[in-house]
Design brief:
- This protein has helices spanning 2-17, 26-38, 42-59, 65-69.
- The protein has one domain (2-69).
- It has 4 helices and no strands.
- It is 74% helix and 0% strand.
- The N and C termini lie far apart (26 Å).
- By secondary structure, the protein is mostly helical.
- α1 (2-17) runs antiparallel to α2.
- Residues 1-22 form the signal peptide.
- Keywords: Signal.
Length: 70
């Protein structure tokens, strides 16, 4: 989970630095976003998914921007 957490933090930092609406390759961003959350067994990604929904999603608009754009 540590690697996924670092990757998630990097992705969230990039979304804060560059607004998602200004990224021309939205499909590529979605693929990068899926990497830490959806490419493994549920037991290995459930912790980071729960962390996102319980903490990250509620704290800042930039952290949920990819959902707003989609």
């Amino acid at each position: 989970m540590a690697f996924r957490s670092v990757l998630k933090g990097f992705i969230l930092a990039m979304a804060k630095l560059v607004p998602v609406e200004l990224i021309p390759e939205l499909d590529a961003l979605v693929e990068v976003w899926i990497a830490p959350f959806g490419r493994s067994e549920s037991s290995s990604v459930s912790g980071i998914g729960r962390q996102f929904w319980e903490a990250d999603f509620r704290t800042r608009v930039a952290r949920r921007a990819i959902f707003d754009v989609a």
